[in-house]
């Protein structure tokens, strides 16, 4: 005679076995940090003894809200985004969310596919760090979606979404103003794409600093390139072919700056002595590079935390008023300038 099929253990049975309320058991399976470690261990032990398996899909259907959210960034190899990811996880795990991560490598086609995939998985919302040149088709599609989307780092002005980022204009103004005070008059702006809102804001800050110092703006010193070490080296080589080459470089981000410094070293010269270099982001490597990198701190982890909090708020109340959080940057002066 065949054994009868074993019935599925319920969360109510787990709660009764552990001597806690069902609400407490529910918070624990959703990863909430509001429960004491002693109670958590007791409930987890009951789950193991009873063979309980959490049915996430059923839970989502009951609550009419997914506990899974998406995070789409441009480049996981960039330490800035690693820090942002930590901030997002720290904040969302408090509320019991699971985060699906996608990387676009600054490709609009990849971004579009990732957004579609997130929707197919019925995520409750998405934190999106848009690519530099998001297409009109992608923007129009985002406008039509009925799930919360938070923009971080870069902003799509055509879409009415919550946003968190840094004041790139002020940050660039600080960096270029520092170089001017050091006596530099020919300052290159290296890396990034003019299609990006973050690049445009940095350019505004760069130009403001020069104008305040009574210096002319030479647009031939704006050299766009990939926001990578390789892009930094290539940008430096192009800048130094100028008939009147720069004596300093303001770089779109720290990765570009590291490439620029390596390019200077490859020429047998010394960054900070033969050419000043300033980055943007203040990733961990900036303080231990040789020389240590002068840079603008953009508080990546804090951006991630704010973006996660905005997403949770929007999931709880889809109709609340739009929010824009702009953090203030700080200039960190080190050996490269």
Please write out the topology.
Layout: H1 11-18, H2 22-29, H3 37-50, H4 56-63, E1 68-73, H5 79-93, E2 98-103, H6 108-120, E3 126-128, H7 136-144, E4 149-152, E5 162-166, H8 168-181, E6 187-190, H9 197-212, E7 222-223, H10 229-240, E8 248-251, H11 254-266, E9 276-278, E10 295-297, H12 300-316, E11 324-327, E12 330-332
Parallel strand pairs: 1-2, 1-3, 3-4, 4-5, 5-11, 6-7, 6-8, 8-9
Antiparallel strand pairs: 10-12
Total domains: 3
- What's the β-strand tally? 12
CATH evolutionary superfamily of the largest domain = Response regulator
> How far apart lie the N and C ends?
82 Å
Largest sheet: 6 strands, parallel
Under the CATH scheme, which class of the largest domain? Answer: Alpha Beta
- Which regions contain 5 or more consecutive residues with pLDDT less than 50? 1-5, 60-64
- Share of helix among residues? 40-55%
* CATH fold label of the largest domain: Rossmann fold
The 3D shape can be described as elongated
Order of helices and strands: HHHHEHEHEHEEHEHEHEHEEHEE
| Strand line-up in the sheet with most strands | 2-1-3-4-5-11
Report the structural category: alpha/beta
Report the β-strand fraction as a percent range: 5-15%
Please give the CATH architecture of the largest domain. Answer: 3-Layer(aba) Sandwich
Q: What's the overall average pLDDT, rounded?
A: 89
Number of helices: 12
Using only CA atoms, what is the Rg? 24 Å
């Amino acid at each position: 005679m065949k054994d009868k099929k074993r019935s599925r253990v319920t969360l109510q049975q787990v709660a009764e076995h552990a001597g806690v309320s069902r609400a407490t058991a529910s918070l624990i399976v959703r990863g909430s940090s509001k429960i004491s470690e002693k109670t958590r261990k007791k409930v987890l032990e009951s789950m193991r003894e009873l063979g309980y398996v959490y049915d996430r899909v059923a839970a989502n259907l009951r609550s009419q809200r997914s506990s899974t959210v998406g995070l789409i960034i441009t480049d996981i190899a960039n330490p800035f985004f690693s820090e942002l990811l930590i901030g997002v996880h720290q904040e969302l795990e408090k509320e019991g969310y699971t985060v699906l991560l996608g990387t676009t490598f600054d490709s609009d086609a990849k971004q579009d596919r990732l957004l579609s995939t997130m929707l197919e998985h019925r995520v409750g919302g998405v934190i999106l760090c848009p690519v530099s040149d998001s297409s009109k088709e992608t923007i129009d599609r985002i406008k039509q979606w009925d799930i919360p989307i938070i923009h971080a780092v870069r902003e799509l002005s055509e879409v009415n979404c919550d946003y968190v980022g840094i004041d790139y204009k002020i940050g660039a103004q600080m960096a270029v103003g520092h170089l001017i005070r050091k006596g530099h008059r020919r300052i290159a702006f290296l890396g990034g794409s003019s299609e990006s809102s973050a690049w445009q804001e940095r350019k505004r800050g760069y130009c403001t600093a020069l104008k305040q110092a009574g210096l002319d703006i030479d647009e031939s010193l704006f050299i766009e390139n990939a926001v990578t070490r390789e892009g930094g080296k290539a940008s430096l080589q192009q800048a130094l072919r100028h008939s009147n080459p720069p004596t300093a470089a303001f770089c779109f981000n720290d990765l570009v700056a590291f490439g620029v410094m390596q390019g200077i070293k490859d020429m047998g010269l010394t960054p900070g002595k033969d050419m000043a270099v300033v980055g943007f982001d203040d990733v961990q490597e900036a303080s231990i590079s040789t020389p240590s990198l002068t840079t603008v701190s953009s508080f990546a982890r804090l951006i991630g935390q704010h973006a996660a909090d905005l997403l949770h708020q929007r999931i709880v109340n889809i109709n609340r008023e739009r929010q824009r959080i702009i953090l203030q940057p700080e200039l960190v002066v080190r050996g490269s300038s």
